[in-house]
Specification:
Elements lengths: L1 H19 L41 E2 L6 E4 L5 E6 L8 E8 L5 E8 L5 E6 L12 E10 L10 E9 L9 H14 L4 H12 L16 E5 L1
Parallel strand pairs: 2-8
Antiparallel strand pairs: 1-3, 3-6, 4-5, 4-7, 5-9, 7-8
Helix pairs in contact: 2-3
């Protein structure tokens, strides 16, 4: 009996320490081994001329993901975060879409209405069974921006990446969950220096320190779903 009491005491002591410890990521989360190719979190790649289609900005259009553009989530309906440095009047169209791994099925597609303030935004996956992510499956997302008044695919700026839904684990960092948790906390407590530091450290951990000081805007409106 004494032994069991000591075990319980040790467990609850460890739990209390874990809950009170500040959340921090010293190193970037490792890229998940899902067998998917790397994505593209900023414009350019093999077509650097496309970076000139939209207004030139100090920080480019960027997906808030690791450099490989791959990440894990435990959420059935995750939120996808991007830094969009444009005002609504500077963009002709902007679309987010999510597809199955083979890209034979479009799980979700929406046109976006940007907020008036450029900054980091979240694009939520609606809580609808037809959009839910299945465990142990990878999905390919795209963010397509066109700043020209003509619908010309050659002028599209395309970012893409991968999200894989997995089971929860107390010893692993899941990128999409972590960035959403810290963004929501920051939005609730924008003047809290510890919360701001945690948000900054997370972005720095994946080489996005240039975006850490940008405004954080709430989730955007979806104007059209397919």
């Amino acid at each position: 009996m004494i032994f069991l009491q000591k075990v319980k005491l040790a467990f609850f002591t460890a739990l209390a320490i874990a809950l009170s410890a500040p959340s921090a990521i010293a190193q970037p989360p490792p890229a998940p081994d899902t067998g998917t190719p790397d994505g593209q979190r900023t414009p350019g790649g093999t077509r650097p001329e496309l970076t000139g289609v939209c207004k030139q900005t100090a920080q480019p259009l960027t997906a808030l993901v690791p450099k490989s553009s791959k990440g894990l989530t435990t959420a059935e309906y995750p939120i996808f975060w991007f830094y969009i440095p444009y005002a609504p009047k500077e963009v002709h169209s902007i679309e987010f879409s999510l597809h199955n791994r083979e890209e034979t099925t479009t799980l979700y597609r929406t046109s976006l209405q940007l907020p008036n303030t450029p900054g980091a935004i979240g694009i939520p996956l609606p809580h609808n069974p037809e959009y839910s992510l299945k465990r142990d499956r990878s999905y390919h997302w795209y963010l397509i921006v066109n700043c020209q008044p003509q619908d010309n695919y050659e002028n599209d700026i395309v970012l893409d990446g991968w999200v894989t839904r997995v089971r929860q684990s107390p010893t692993q960092v899941f990128w999409y969950d972590e960035v959403t948790n810290r963004a929501k906390r920051y939005l609730l407590e924008p003047q809290n220096l510890k919360v701001k530091a945690a948000w900054t450290k997370l972005l720095q951990s994946v080489g996005l320190e240039g975006i850490a000081q940008a405004p954080l805007v709430n989730a955007v409106s979806n104007s059209q779903n397919d």
